[in-house]
Amino acid sequence: MHFLKKLDIFLLEKFPLLWHTKLPYAACFSIIISALFYVWGYIFTTEFLINRFPESSYFERSNALLCFLIINAIFIIVWALAFYRKSAVKNLYPLQRFYFTRLLCSFLFIFWSLTWSFTTFNWGVKSKIRNLAPLTELEEHIRTINFADAFLFNNSFTYDTYIQTFHPDVSKIRFDYNDSVWKDVPTILCRDTVQFNSTESKYVKKMHPLEIKETTYHPSEHPWNNDTVENKLVQFLLTQSRVTKIDCYGTNETLYLIGAKKLNQLCPNGLNDLRNFCKEKISPSYFEYEKYDNIFLEYAARRFHFRGWYYRDDNFSIKINKDFNDFLSQSSQADVLQLLNKYERLLNRHQIGYSLNTSEILDYVWKRKHNMNFSPIVGQSSNNPKQVELDRARFGNLENYEAYKSQTDDVYEQPWYFVETGQLEQLYSNSLRAHDPAINWMAFIVSIFFALGCALVFFLFAIGNPINLIIVASAGGVFVILNILFFVVFLEYHGSDYGTYKNTEFRLFSQLMVFSAILYALFYIFYQGKNVSKRLLLITFNLCFALSVLFPAFLFLFLESVLKTEYLDSCSDSHTIHSLFYYWVQDPIVIWVSAFSAILLFTHFIKPVLAKPE
Amino acid sequence: MHPFQSKINQTKIHFNNSDVDLGFRNLVDCVLDTADQAFYKKTINLVSWKEQNPDDREHFTRKSLDLLQELALLKPVGQDENKPLATITDLSKKYRRSSFEIGPVSLLINPGEIWGLVGENGNGKTSLLRVIAKDLSPDKGTITFSDDLEQLKLYNQRSHLAYIPQRTPKWHGSLKSNLKFTASQYGIFGEENELLVLMYIIRFGLWSFRNYKWSELSSGYKMRFELARTFLRKPKLLLLDEPLANLDVLAQQLILEDLKLMAASLSNPLGIILSSQQLFEVEKVADKVIFLKKGSPIYIDQTIEEKKSNGVEKTVLEMDVQLSKEELSVIIQPFPVEQIQFNGGIFIVHISRRSCMNEILQKLIDSKVQITYIRDISKSSRRFFIQTT
User: Fold this and answer.
1) How far apart are alpha carbons B271 and B143 in whole angstroms?
2) From A251-255, A537-541, B39-43, B373-377, the region with the lowest mean pLDDT
3) How far is B156 from chain A (nearest CA, A)?
4) Which range marks the domain in which residue B63 is found?
5) Residues B91 and B62 in one domain
């Protein structure tokens, strides 16, 4: 207490602005609250949650959001009461150099500091996730999961396709000349086009069906796709669709078959479309895959694909596939059992929902050892969800099923098992996010924008009175409505003049520029005028001040609308060449800096306006 | 003799005459004039000592005299410049709605000078003060400040024109923290901030109340706080709107006396314009008085009035006596009575003779009339408040 008192006096005597804005106290408050939120996030996060919900939802799920809002609301009320009880500006005290800039920066910092607790909560969550499910540890289990998965569930796409494709009998690829015709034509697609109707002098929208042209492929007719592998003539082909314009208002989509020299060119869906038109076998060594230096590069490559995280890339899948084949060729029954047990431990460790009987599965696999293509394991019967449902319905529960199985001698009956792969996916996804960089730049920019908005509102309160600000808010609303009405009504009656996007945008932003200019001109006139009501001057000033935040964006958009080039091609399709300002508007840093600079520039008017006699 | 030495001598006289409170206030003024932090500390120590030994008056006097002795050894302080603070020429302000107009007013305000601004309610006193404080813009006329003020921008200029409204705004926090905040805004930091604030707390008798809040202070102390806060701002021109309203007689006298002393500060002499209804009290301290009647000014220079009154062949008396108008007329019949006005409680007697108050008083005593009070208002602006028939 004594220390606080001394600190308070020190600030009051040495740094009156800090004392007045209570910035050090606000910072301390934010640090304490942030620390508490960190602990909250850390404690709240459990293995159960990690497996089930994305980490970004914990803030809301834990009621931390509600708490965050309440605490910040209370803080803002208490802080505002403390701050607005004194006013150097309203007392016309002489202000130190860059007083308003420093005041605005203080506000900015205070309001930004209120967002810290959100960040630290997520840090707490991520920290706990990193402790409970370290990515390095999970990476080590990727192999286990993928290998074990081959014996379990829902692997037709990965294992079935790849194993059967590449190991060891390439001849299992279905190929024949008749297979080159794509009969499954996709749904007819439509696209909009804008067409100029000369009779109505208007642009109108027209819908055009996307025509799909069927082609028939005969390898002999496409010798440029030939390749020679191991002295054998082959054609490895991929499908690719191409859009061809027939005329301006219609297109053809043609499916092409193109040659693929190496397997690593066949991604991401290349394998599905692969056709080998050679009747002879090719050895698997032909299908080389890209090697990664380390597991993180593999991970980086996987990220781009939409499939399950641990086999996201076809190349990686192929690698796994090869490894798995090696594993199969070298492993004993004990090795497979060890693999399945390891998998089970992993599921246990992370509280993933499952029901596995590893010995039964192993037994089932080994009984089919003579037919090591594993299709019965991962084939249709095990992968058919309907079959699983039927089994469940039939036996009611696992006990019944096991009782049934003990009575029957049906060695071909697949064991009943269940793994919550969704939870496994969520675990890896959360772990992955927990290892993202601590600072999320987009969240940082958003929090700064939030702080700037709050700072501006409270800054206006610091230099004006509440009644004036209420009038300013109302007047601002009227201006917005007037602008909308003016724009809409004018567009309605002069639609033909503003048919293109360029003209519409030019119209909108030039209107905003004119309104802004009128407002600034009014402010200047009132400021220079001798017999103008002070209240009117203050209201105009506040409106201009608030407008100054948006003005740079308006200006950029206006300049963009003037400088951008739009042209219609021979098919009346619109194309735009943007100016630099278009990219500036989309850059949050440029917008933030320009808005902040505009506010700072406007602070120069505060003293003369406030001091002006009534 | 240098004014600083005179001030010290005068202070010693107060102490020697056992006017310890008055003497101490003068002592604090002398210390403030030095702007020497070492003396600030000694004064603060002295007050702290007094707080612990409230009954040891003799010892306190001795310590004060010792401090005075030390002050006397200092090099005299003071500003020699005596340029006008503000020159107001033909200033007028018109209200369009009511068509009420103030002015034209012309004033020349010098440092150390107190102007009284008197007039009935609604005659434009507050408006005139606000126009001078540049809170309202005049319709005509000019206000020219001294060079150092004139070259400042409007906001900074207004920072040096301290206008204290009749109803002072509420403040929050302790009295001392508010004063410290004001001082820091005026660039007074660190130890100087603490010392100067305490000096003004002492000067305006707020020592015991320094940790009080607004709600814990009486009106008189609130006004003292405002004055302390204003003097911390080192204003060039102080504009006070009815500072004596809601104050008891003693508090009024104290504040007026303080204003008189502070205006005559050697280190920071300032001009004061003071509006009030307390005519006699204001006249006691004001060098010059403006009487506003329906917005038009009547100027009364107290020193000139004094001289003028010697040649005036008229006496105006205000009296409260237990008589009817007819009885009073009979008693003062021997005098050349021009007019007797009665407003139901007080008589205003106009006599066409110079300085005859003593004779009339004697006559009333001889007639065994019970006199509540009698006052010669021949030179006072009070006479302008009287409705002539």
Assistant:
1) 14
2) A251-255
3) 6
4) 3-72
5) no
